[in-house]
Amino acid sequence: MKPWQWLGHCLDRLCRPIPWGLALVNYVHQRILRVNSQYPFSVNFTSRVVGNVKIGSNVWISFAVSGGCYIQANNGIEIGDDTIFAPGVKIISANHSFSDHGKWNKAPSIKIGRGVWIGANAVVLPGVQIGDGAVIGAGSVVTKSVGAGEVVAGNPAKLVRTKPRYFKIALQDELNPINLRTTHLSE
């Protein structure tokens, strides 16, 4: 490695698992320009987060890396551990009131389980609950709750298949929090 490459190498190690350039741009937008500044986790500079969002471990990685997302949590959103989402995802927990467009309709909060995978440009609408290990296909519009281990796709999202019963997402190692393992359950 050439001497002038050491800085980039050290920054890559320091900012892992997101690229150091993206970490720097996110930091400038969030901490200096004050865009999405109320959140303690890094938010991509092209994304917007509004309202009360509670996230589990390792979800911050998707917030930092996935661009063009809109997370509107005026009625609350809870996202479980190890959930990932792709760029362009919209999670909307409240609709505008018909009589006064400046107010939000009350609805149950959105709850997303552990180990959920939400594909690019998917939309999750108010009151939806998504079970552990579910997969939301790219471009889907989720209007109804999704059970654990279900794979849904389409507009509106419909059940495509259910994951095999004998696989589950295992808890992560303390030493290696990024990697997920699958384990076989005895029947």
Would you write up a description of this structure?
There is one protein chain. Helices cover 16% and strands 27% of the residues. The chain has 187 residues and is α/β, with parallel strands linked by helices. It has one domain: 3 Solenoid (UDP N-Acetylglucosamine Acyltransferase, domain 1). The strands form 3 sheets. Strands 1, 2, 4, 5, 7, 8 and 10 form a 7-stranded parallel β-sheet that branches. The longest helix is centred in the N-terminal third of the chain and has 13 residues.
Biggest β-sheet strands, sense, barrel: 7 strands, parallel
List the quaternary state of the chains. Answer: single chain
CATH class: Mainly Beta
- Strand tally: 14
- CATH superfamily grouping: Hexapeptide repeat proteins
Distance between the termini: 52 Å
Structural class by helix and strand composition: alpha/beta
Quickly count the domains. 1
* Structural Rg: 18 Å
CATH names the topology as: UDP N-Acetylglucosamine Acyltransferase, domain 1
What spatial form do the alpha-carbon principal axes imply?
Answer: globular
Count up the helices: 3
Element-level helix/strand string:
HHEHEEEEEEEEEEEEE
Fraction of residues in β-strands: 25-35%
Low-confidence stretches: 166-187
Whole-number mean pLDDT: 85
Topology:
Blueprint: H1 6-15, H2 20-32, E1 48-55, H3 60-65, E2 70-79, E3 84-85, E4 90-92, E5 110-112, E6 117-118, E7 123-124, E8 129-130, E9 135-136, E10 141-142, E11 150-153, E12 158-162, E13 167-169, E14 182-184
Parallel strand pairs: 1-2, 2-4, 2-5, 3-6, 4-7, 5-8, 6-9, 7-10, 9-11
Antiparallel strand pairs: 11-12, 13-14
